Amino acid sequence: MTAATRPSWASVARARLNVEIKEFVRSREQMIFIFAFPIIFLLLFGTIFSGQTLGETRVTFSQYFLAGMIATGIINTGFQSLGISLAIDRDEDVLKRIHGTPLPKSAFFAAKIAQVLIVSIIQIALLIVLGVAIYDVQVPDSAERWWTFTWVFLLGTAASTALGIATSSILRNGKAASAILTPVVLVLQFTSGVFVVFTQLPEWLQAFGSVFPLRWLAQGMRSVFLPEQFALAEAQGEWQHGITAIVLVVWLVIGLAVAMKTFRWQRREDS
């Protein structure tokens, strides 16, 4: 008899990704929240500030808010939604059952990260299409700007996903995750230049927001979607791409370190 061929890591991870996508689609509440939240706020702020520009520039508020909504969408998907869903899966013993299967743990996390990437790409595409169609926002017109978009997106997604995985084990259960992460993200949105122009915040709030990745993710996206001269309106008068990359990498490392140290496959009381 010929021994059965063991499936490759890639095929196992791909199969798990298909499961993750199907579960995401079936979870209508989660899907609606992830896609509708940034779209609703883009439409809301775009309508309220329709036709208004930032200071003496020709940059519309809609253009500014698009960059912020893309950034907050990444955080919502990778940090908030993933953290909550993992905590709920642990409560319902889904993670415990997965842990008892031959599925490589690295393949499980790779599938989670890939699912976040796919959902984020779809979300961003929807935001850009709506922004262009309704508010006539301008998309990047150079390879350099698209390269900036790519590395900011990938680093931001990686950092937020690592933090989401880490946070899911720190919080006690799924209910606690939802109750705590939602207001935390909301506060960060107001202190990171998403809902309010960052330089209009008090200096102490700017300092507070600058500690966290959303502030730099939002600024990185503004450097993609706003004219180059708008860099002068930033807190330091430039886009600070180097600092943006450093901060996002630092938070990625922190998230990975905490996740490796604290991640649990079962409920605390079952440990």
Features:
10 helices, single chain
Characterise this structure:
The protein is mostly helical and 271 residues long. The protein has one domain (9-270). The protein contains ten helices and no strands. It is globular, with a radius of gyration of 20 Å.
Structural class, judged by helices and strands? mainly alpha
Number of structural domains: 1
Oligomer: single chain
Helix-strand pattern, N to C? HHHHHHHHHH
Shape: globular
Q: Count of helices? A: 10
What is the strand tally?
0
Residue ranges: pLDDT <50 for 5 or more in a row? Answer: none
Beta-sheet strand percentage?
under 5%
Helical content stands at over 70%
Main β-sheet, in a few words?
none
Can you give the mean pLDDT? 89
**Cα separation of the termini:** 42 Å
Q: From the alpha-carbon coordinates, what is the Rg to the nearest angstrom?
A: 20 Å
How is the topology of this model organized?
Blueprint: H1 9-26, H2 28-48, H3 61-91, H4 94-99, H5 105-135, H6 143-170, H7 174-191, H8 203-209, H9 213-225, H10 241-262
Helix pairs in contact: 1-5, 2-3, 2-5, 3-5, 3-6, 3-7, 3-9, 5-6, 6-9, 6-10, 9-10
Give a summary of the structure in a few sentences.
The chain is mainly alpha-helical.
